[in-house]
Structure formats: C-alpha cells, structure tokens
TrEMBL record:
Organism this protein belongs to: Aquincola tertiaricarbonis
One Pfam family, short name: Exo_endo_phos
Name of the protein in question: ExeM/NucH family extracellular endonuclease
Residue intervals of the Endonuclease/exonuclease/phosphatase domain: 297-585
Keywords: Endonuclease, Hydrolase, Nuclease
InterPro entries attached to this UniProt entry: Endo/exonu/phosph_ase_sf, Endo/exonuclease/phosphatase, ExeM-like
GO molecular function per UniProt: endonuclease activity
Length: 598
C-alpha cells in the first residue's frame, strides 16, 4: 500500500511554535483549552493536570469531554480525549473532573512524552488518578463544520469536540471498513483519479490537493480490529462507494487511517451514533445492454489460482470454491460470446477450469478455453497470465492463438482471430495486462521507471513501451482488432494516450464517458479499457462497465481471514455466491455488429 499521506489523503495539522511551557508543579487545575493550546502539541505535554468538562462521547478506549467555557487561545479546541477503562456510570451529558497526565497519542500506539512537534497526534489524558462525577449537565451542542475548511484552518481546533459535518457526504473509500470500521467521506461527491481527468503533471497534482481538502475519515469509535458487527452496512449487507449521507455528528480526533503501522495518520470523525447512508448508487442484476450481435467482455478476476497456499489467490479449497462461485455468477450474468480474462494462474488448466465451472452452471459445451501456450516471457516471469474463453456456438477461432513474447512483456498479450458462426467478418481480440504501478514490485524501477511525481506511479516508461508494442502486435493481426484488458493506466495517462494516437478508438470514452473500473485510495478511474481499430470501431454498437466490484467493500469477497457477519441472509462471515465483489476490478462489456463479408 502506498503511503496515504503522500497520496494526499488528509490535510496535516499545521505545526506552530509551541506555547511557553508552564511552570513545573505536582498538578495544576487548568481549562481544556489551556491543555490543548493553539499548536499541534499541547504546551502541557508530560504534566499532570486536572480538568473539568462534560462527557460528549464514549469510545472503546475511554471517552471525550468538552467545556464550552472559553478560557484559552482562540484557536484552541474545547474538547479532550481521556484514555481510561474507568467508564462506569459515564454517559454523554455527565460533568466530570479528571486528573491525568497529558500525552500526545501517535499512530502505531506511540505516546510522545517529550517536548517535540507532533502533527498527526491526539492530545489526551492518560494515567488517570481521579475521575469524579459532578452530576448532569447540558450536552455541548455540536459545532457545524463544512469541508473544505477556510484557508489556513485545520480540524485541530475541533479535536475532542462534537461537530456535525454537513453534507451531503459521499462514501469514496471503504477498504478498511471490515478491518478497522473506517470509511472515507468526500464533501464533493465521487472523486476520480486526477490522471483519469487530466493529463499527468501539474494540473493533475493540483486536483489531488483539492480533493484531499474535501475528505475526512469516518470511524466507528472502536479501536479493535475486525469489528463485529461490521458498522455502517445497510441494505443487502453492503455499503457502496457513491452512497451518501446528509450529515454526520461525532467527535474529532487524529489517528491511523492506514492498514499498517507506519501508514499515514489524519483527522477522523468518530461516529457516536448510527449513520444511515442512502443507496445513491444501487446494484444492478446485470450489465446495461450494449446491443449488437456479439458481446465481448474483459474481466480481471483477481488471482484465480488453482494452486493453493502459494501466497496468491485462494489459500484453501473452501476459499477457491467461494472465489469460483462468485466469478461464475458474474460471468454467467455478463453472458459474453468472448471473454478476455486477466490474473489467471499461469498453468495450462486454469482457464479450462473456469470454462468447466461455467458449463456446469449454464449447460454442457457453452464455453471453451482458447488453447494457448503458457506465458513464458524473457524479462520477469509472472505467476499470472491472460486467457480467453469463448462460446463455440457463437464464434469459431480462426488459426492458433498467438502471444507477443517480446521481452518487455512479463504477462504477454494473447491474440485470437474469431469468425461469427452466424456469418460476418473476422476480427481479432487481443487481451493484455500491463505492468503494475506499484513501486515495490518484484523488480526495483530504474531511473526511467521510477515514480516521476506526475501522478502516473512507477513503471510508466515500461507501460509506454508495452503500449507501443501492443499497437504493433495488433496491427499485425489484421485491420479489425479489439484491444481489451487491464492496462494499469488511467484514461489520460501516457500508455492510453499513445494507443489513441496510434488510431485506436476508446470505446468507453465514446459510449460511456465518466465510467470507472477501479477504485484506489478513494479515487475512481479506468484501469481496464476497450480500444478498437478504426475498421472494427465502425462495427461497435455500445460499451459499458458493470459496477459489481470496485464499489463494493472488500469484506464481501471470498477470503475467510478476519471476516465478520455482514447481514442476516449472508453466510456466517457475509459471503454470498453472487457477482458482487467477485474481484476488485469491474468488467468491461462491448457490443459488436460485425459486417457481412462481401
């Protein structure tokens, strides 16, 4: 996972000069605002203090308290977090007096006890020696907040306070929902990958910064992993990216917003009551019709491995059965005449296994796998390959399948010519899977392949060379060719731009502008493409994306580890044998009407 701070997930607290350190003493009774101070670090760090306030929220690790009396710097928060297990008799609206040590809690569990700048930490009281209940009080009203904040402000001034984040707010990421009960919300609707909308460079980077200012992480108030029940889920046991809520009330804190220790920290809104999301982006039982007499689809099936316990794909027979059931449900609903698949295990029977599973569900002989040599590249062999399935009753292969075995491919493209059984001109389908954007891939990037800081990630130079080779390979297959697959490049990035400049027509851009196939760190975009040569583009009737995966939470996939119940009608861990979250990429579907041969 890339560092979220580098990706612009949050606006970090602005470090300010620390206020003068208070005189030493055994204990001091001060206001919450004095403890918070106007900087990122409390001026009372390491001191034992006594404060008073009204409990405004209960957390799994303690509670938060707030005092509306202004008695400190104007920018200072009037809320404070208390880390303690002594919560008996506490509830929102109880006034308390607390004595404890001031610390800054940092991601990964570190507490800063020395005087040092500490952006990204939460000021809290620990080592509580006194917790006195003073009776009932009026719960402080929630402060209305709207993103983006005015220039120069951060959420530091609201740390520990009840706020109402005004919307509408849109779910843009839920990768950590099942693991940590976290979501990312946006105040500007669905967010797209900047290089899906802009050419790489300054404009794309500026867009990423603007997007970061519109975001906040919504947390469920629990610090434990794998929360049960999973929070925030609604109808059908899911929460989809694109779902919305009018406003959310909770308490602001700072803490980890990444999956691992050392990942980024940021401001979070701890939800202290149920949040009811509206299904603004509903599921559909099948993809939108694309027309034509032939249907072609592209689908990255996320490491479909028959080899178990190999570190990729299913790790047990039960997981493989669950994975296969979901993929079959998706492919059956797509009902394509030709299927281009990515992330199939590089062994001879992997694609045939999926064809057999489809035939068991749909009828004998419906699908067959295109016989193809195993991918055996010379430069960086991969455990996965691309593959093709087809309906013998609808199309017939013409000649053998071909792979482009040039060394720059570590997942060589696969081409197969087809003729419609009902008559029509021959066309070639070429399925590809370009080099990943990950900078920690199996080989370190050289200078050209290193991240250039323009929004395209690592190995862009390699992907550009692969795109140029793909254009040459396609032209050698004949005048009517369709390029499908996961190019690991968004719509305005160099590899896709090169293919368009080579004359290939972007069918999604033509028929479904604004579509996406993947969501990464809360930003949607097209990694999966369908580009046709001019002769075949004239025979393309439609193209669409079926949003069954990228918008669904990972907790619904086939994996067993760390799973919790998601809905009453699901399996014990939320799994269902349906198409939703059968992968992490959405399938692309194209409708063709091949012309009759003269």
């Amino acid at each position: 996972m890339l560092a979220l701070a580098a990706a612009g997930w949050f606006t970090p607290a602005t470090a300010r000069p620390a206020e003068p350190r208070p005189e030493a003493g055994p204990s001091a009774e001060v206001s919450i605002q004095q403890v918070q101070g106007s900087g990122a670090t409390s001026p009372w760090l390491g001191r034992v203090v006594t404060v008073q306030g009204v409990v405004n929220g209960l957390l799994s690790s303690g509670f938060t308290m707030q005092d509306d009396a202004a008695d400190g710097p104007l920018e200072a928060s009037r809320g404070l977090q208390v880390h303690t297990r002594q919560r008996q008799g506490l509830e929102p609206g109880v006034r308390v007096r607390v004595t404890g040590r001031v610390e800054e809690f940092a991601p990964g569990g570190e507490r800063l006890k020395a005087r040092q700048p500490a952006a990204g930490t939460t000021t809290q009281l620990t080592d509580v020696s006194l917790l006195e209940r003073l009776g009932s009080a009026t719960l402080p009203p929630a402060v209305p907040v709207r993103l983006p904040l005015p220039a120069g402000q951060t959420l530091e001034r609201y740390e520990g306070m009840r706020v109402t984040l005004q919307g509408p707010l849109t779910v843009v990421d839920h990768a950590l929902l099942g693991r940590f009960g976290q979501l990312t919300l946006s105040a500007e609707g669905r967010q797209f990958m900047p290089t899906e909308l802009q050419r790489p460079g300054a404009q794309a980077l500026a867009l990423a910064q603007r997007q970061a200012q519109q975001r906040i992480v919504l947390d469920d108030g629990r610090s434990s992993a794998n929360p049960s029940p999973v929070p925030f889920l609604g109808a059908e046991g899911t929460l989809r990216i694109g779902d919305t809520v009018a406003a959310v009330t909770g308490v602001i804190d700072e803490g980890p917003i990444g999956a691992r220790v050392g990942d980024a920290s940021g401001y979070r809104l701890q939800a202290l009551q149920p949040v009811n999301f509206q299904r603004s982006h509903p599921r559909t039982a099948a993809p939108r019709p694309v027309g034509g007499s032939l249907k072609v689809a592209s689908f990255n099936v996320l490491n479909y491995f028959l080899t178990l316990e190999g570190g990729r794909g299913a790790e047990s027979a039960q997981e493989l059965q669950r994975q296969r059931a979901k993929i079959v449900a998706a492919l059956r609903a797509i009902d394509a005449d030709v299927l281009g698949l990515m992330e199939i295990e590089n062994r001879p029977d992997a694609a045939a296994d999926l064809a057999q599973a489809l035939n068991q569900a749909m009828g004998a002989g419906i699908y067959a796998a295109v016989p193809a040599p195993l991918a055996a590249p010379a430069d960086g062999a991969d455990a996965i390959q691309v593959a093709l399935l087809y309906k013998p009753g609808r199309v017939r292969p013409v000649g053998p399948a071909r792979r482009d075995e040039r060394p720059l491919h570590h997942r060589p493209p696969l081409a197969q010519a087809f003729e419609p059984v009902a008559g029509g001109e021959r066309f070639s389908l070429i399925v590809s899977h370009f080099k990943s954007k990950r900078c920690d891939d199996e080989r370190p990037a050289d200078d050209a392949d290193a991240d250039q800081g323009d929004g395209q990630g690592c190995f862009n130079a390699r992907r550009v060379r692969q795109a140029r080779a793909l254009a040459e390979f396609a032209q050698a297959q004949g005048p009517r060719s369709l390029l499908i697959g996961d190019l690991n490049a968004y719509g305005q990035e160099d590899p896709v731009q090169l293919l368009r400049e080579a004359g290939f027509v972007d069918l999604l851009q033509r028929f479904e502008p604004g579509a996406w196939t993947y969501v990464f760190q809360g930003r949607a975009g097209r990694l999966d493409h369908a580009l046709a040569s001019p002769a075949l583009a004239a025979q393309a009737i439609g193209a669409t994306v079926w949003h069954i995966n990228a918008d669904e939470p990972p907790l619904l996939d086939y994996k067993l580890e760390g799973r919790q119940p998601a809905c009453a009608r699901c399996a014990a861990d939320g799994w269902r044998p349906d198409a939703f979250r059968s992968s992490d990429h959405d399938p692309v579907i194209v409708g063709l009407r091949p012309a009759r041969r003269p």
